[in-house]
Write a structure and sequence with these properties.
single chain, 297 residues, alpha/beta, 6-stranded parallel sheet, 9 helices, 28% helix, 27% strand, globular
Length: 297
């Protein structure tokens, strides 16, 4: 089978499309014929060697955590899923023609493989940081870097739970934020005052790692009410860096419910063939994403 792999940490150029042995489902796992794989910032952070504590790997290594596809192997002890089912979920080395998943759910009606591949890690992260930051119904949550996949999920989930959301993003993504129910403003010079004009901030999330943690603490008045998933220096300001996943099966179940109720939709901004994984990483690292990027197998 074809698989994206890297044998040294570094830039996008270390990614290679190689021939590899097919993986097989072990106990409690399933294997899918991959139709699409989600491209997440954690993928290129791992490729660069940044986050090895949470995701220890041995080189050479595959790439990717999220995928959608058709079940073609069911491991020992697995119930409730059969060969031929359309599923999406999280596993390892998902930039490949076949991948083993350790957490999965059936794809909701009306969702394409490309769309489904963009949800697993994104929704788990969104649910986790909303829980960790402690925002309540009736309170206001500020989301810095709100137009990407996690931001899109956070805005919709927080709104569904009764919170007001303020999102910052580039000028081209203001309508995208408003379409998800957010009060929107641009980042850049004067952004703190623009946020203050929109209302009091009870809690804040840093999703872009653009060096705004100090200002988020200033806006909330409490470093305990700020969470970052992108700034490794956040603890210097007393802010928690959240990088360890919670329960992916629970997140997938909640995602299915939200999608089925029409309360969650994360658009796919761009799709790439498997051979263009490096280009997908370059675009992901550049930021300014509106929704998700996925690889099509």
């Amino acid at each position: 089978m074809k698989k994206v792999s890297f044998s040294a940490f570094g830039g996008p150029d270390v990614l290679q499309l190689v021939d590899a042995e097919e993986p097989h489902a072990g106990p409690g796992q399933i294997r899918i014929a991959v139709r699409a794989a989600g491209v997440n910032p954690v993928d290129w952070r791992i490729r660069e060697g940044q986050v090895l504590g949470a995701h220890p790997i041995e080189l050479p290594s595959g790439v990717g955590l999220d995928a959608s596809g058709v079940v073609d192997e069911v491991g020992e002890g697995v119930e409730g899923v059969k060969v031929g089912d359309r599923v999406f979920g999280e596993g390892s080395s998902t930039y490949a023609e076949f991948a083993v998943l350790s957490a999965w759910a059936r794809i909701p009606e009306g969702l394409t493989f490309e769309e489904a591949a963009g949800y697993p890690s994104v929704v788990e992260t969104a649910l986790r940081v909303i829980r960790e930051v402690g925002v309540q119904s009736g309170q206001t949550l500020l989301v810095s870097g709100a137009s990407g996949g996690v931001g899109s999920a956070v805005l919709q989930i927080a709104r569904d739970r009764g919170s007001t959301v303020i999102g910052t993003a580039g000028a081209a993504n203001q309508d995208h934020l408003r379409s998800m129910g957010a009060l929107a403003t641009t980042y850049g010079e004067g952004w703190v005052e623009r946020v203050r004009e929109l209302g009091h901030v009870d809690a804040a999330l840093d999703l872009a790692g653009s060096g705004v943690v100090r200002e988020l603490v200033e806006l909330t008045g409490d470093e305990r009410k700020v969470i970052s998933i992108a700034d490794l220096d956040a603890p210097e300001f007393g802010v928690r860096f959240s990088g360890v996943a919670g329960s992916v099966p629970e997140a997938l179940a909640e995602a299915v419910g939200l999608i089925s109720r029409g309360k969650l939709h994360i658009p796919v901004e761009k799709s790439y063939p498997l051979a263009e994984a490096a280009a997908a990483h370059i675009d992901s690292q550049a930021g300014h994403t509106r929704g998700r990027r996925v690889l099509v197998v």
